[in-house]
């Protein structure tokens, strides 16, 4: 692989292009300052303004959300896995029909594997602009977002209408639904009964891993975070590991699956057959199967990196009984 080919597979944090109109709550007060980033794959954005950095998917999607303090993402659900790790800031994740069934606060480096089939939202409760990185199961990320009814109703009062085709229309800009396209239907009371309301105690032990716990486990080998036999046992169509200094040997290795490298702390040197590159916190690198590579911290100090690999498992965890 040439350096030019590898460079095309590295999305730098500083080059990320945000979309401020990605979802139906883009005009709703309290949610109108959030930014959505689609890094690998089409993601779940409802806006034609969304920039996609790398369209080819490795069996899952990579995205990110950036929000100033006190900005929240409205209650929604997905049909496949939605995993977040906190790159910057302090974040509160909450869930349930009204967002009051349970909650957890995540610090930098922490990761949450949110169960499918529940409404969830999140907000930046830190003092500065925050950033969370997302892994979404499936090549098509599960076919979009399912919004809690009140989110659709609130959005209509601020000019945004979601069509049944999954696209947004801004009535304040004079846009209207095309002929033959109806508004997205609101879930009925009977349909809402299918969405579980798990408590904090039911979710956190099974779906949240703390950064320093993972760092301790990654002292001599990668910490297995999500996947078969990992800290979080669900198999959502991909597996996640946390690497730190000494986790892997310096020799090159190959894989028969796609591998995504996402530094959390420190600078990492990626050596591959054909060249080398330095990966920094917030960067995303997509290494294809069969390419011999090694990755090691390039400087002293704290270093950690999330590594995501595609698997053949179904793309969505469910709430444990």
From TrEMBL:
One of its GO terms (molecular function) is isomerase activity. The keyword Isomerase applies. Residues 69-132 form the Cupin type-2 domain. Signal peptide: none annotated. It comes from the Bacteria. InterPro entries: Cupin_2, RmlC-like_jellyroll, RmlC_Cupin_sf. Residues 302-321 are annotated as: Disordered. Keywords: Isomerase. This is Mannose-6-phosphate isomerase-like protein (Cupin superfamily). It comes from Litoreibacter ponti.
């Amino acid at each position: 692989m040439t350096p030019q080919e590898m460079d095309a597979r590295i999305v730098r944090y500083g080059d990320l292009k945000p979309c401020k109109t990605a979802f139906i709550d883009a005009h709703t007060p309290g949610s109108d300052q959030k930014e959505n980033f689609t890094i690998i794959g089409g993601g779940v954005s409802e806006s034609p303004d969304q920039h996609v950095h790398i369209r080819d998917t490795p069996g899952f999607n990579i995205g990110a959300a950036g929000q100033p303090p006190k900005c929240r993402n409205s209650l929604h659900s997905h049909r496949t896995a939605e995993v977040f790790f906190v790159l910057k800031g302090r974040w509160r994740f909450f869930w349930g029909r009204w967002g009051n069934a349970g909650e957890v606060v995540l610090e930098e480096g922490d990761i949450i594997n949110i169960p499918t089939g529940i409404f969830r939202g999140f907000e930046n409760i830190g003092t500065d602009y925050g950033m969370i990185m997302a892994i979404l199961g499936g090549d098509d990320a599960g076919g979009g977002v399912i919004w809690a009814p009140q989110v659709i109703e609130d959005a209509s009062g601020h000019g945004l209408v979601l069509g049944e085709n999954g696209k947004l229309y801004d009535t304040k800009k004079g846009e209207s639904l095309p002929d033959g396209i109806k508004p997205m239907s609101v879930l009925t009371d009977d349909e809402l009964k299918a969405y579980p309301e798990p408590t904090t105690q039911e979710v956190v032990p099974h779906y949240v891993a703390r950064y320093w716990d993972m760092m301790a486990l990654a002292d001599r080998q990668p910490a297995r975070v999500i996947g078969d036999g990992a800290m979080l046992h669900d198999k959502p169509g991909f597996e996640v590991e946390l690497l730190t200094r000494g986790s892997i040997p310096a020799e090159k290795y190959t894989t028969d699956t796609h591998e995504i490298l996402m530094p959390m702390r420190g600078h990492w040197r990626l050596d591959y057959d054909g060249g080398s590159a330095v990966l920094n916190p917030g960067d995303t690198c997509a290494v294809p199967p069969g390419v011999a590579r090694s990755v090691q911290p390039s400087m002293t100090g704290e270093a950690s990196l999330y590594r995501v690999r595609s698997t053949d498992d179904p793309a969505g965890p469910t709430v444990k009984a």
